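Next comes one such specimen:
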Amino acid sequence: MAPSAAAHHRSHSLLLLQKLLNLRDKASPLTLILDTLEQSAQPVLNEFMTRAKISKTKIIFISLSTHKKPPLANVFIRGRHKTLQQLAAEIIPHVTPSPSSPNQKNLLLITPLHPLLSHPHLLPTFLQSIIPPSTSCLLVYHLDIPLLLSPSPSYSPTPLQILTHLSTSILTLSSLPQTLASKAAADKSLPSPTFGLNSGREGVLVGLHHPPSPSQSSQKDGVVITMELRRKSGRVVQEKFVLFPSSSSSEPQIKSVGALMLLSDHPAFSTVGNDEQEEDMEATFNLGLTEKQRRDREGVVLPYFDAQTEVGGGEGGRILYDMGREDDFDEEEDEI
């Protein structure tokens, strides 16, 4: 039996994200990850690095905020207080293929980007110099952190616009609990709740929480990923997924990949089975017809049925009416 259109769409969408996470077939040389204080990009970065480690891809981590090397990174570069030229000079030797391993694949992660965006017009040249054909690059951009930009003409594009234009894929992250809360409010025709800085409560990040127990981490740690993948043909593929990060094993260097599913397949969003539930609902009345009622309905002759079937000779719309004994015959109306 051939798969349905919905099943084919589901499999195709999941395959595209799997190829992107596994860095297969140069799915995306430059991926922009947009996160917020409410949903950090760390679970997605861990997923990329875990899959890269499994495929023996060299992981080069450029940090502009922390001085701690991630356990899965092969190379760690501190980029704070460095210019783009200095940072590029330090990165290029690690991404340049060597004679001993000419086919070595590299994963380059830069997080966060804000310290490098003071001169956005230099970004294209910088990115082009550090991303050879064998390297895939991940850029993390915090949407809710303001930028201090140098004076520039009013018509100059913003750093986010430049990054969006250069990227071959964009992953916008949001919290699964917040997405479910918004869906529940929409189902009840209630205003969508606000979280984080949008809540307007100074000094409080509403909705920012950590699971109290590991048993709840499967739902609370879910990350909603809105993928925008730009194909070579120019076509844009958009889809929403949920990533459930895997729990760390006893050895920090060995991890399993997380679980992926379409957001539409999540129990709170899925519509599969709703029709069956509606049929099973008990009610005090039944809108359906029995077989006898159906036969009786088919045998009913509609009013003026003869006038509808005998139309012809220019008499379309003629109504046949048989007067009864109680009818009052009016000659004037008959003449009209």
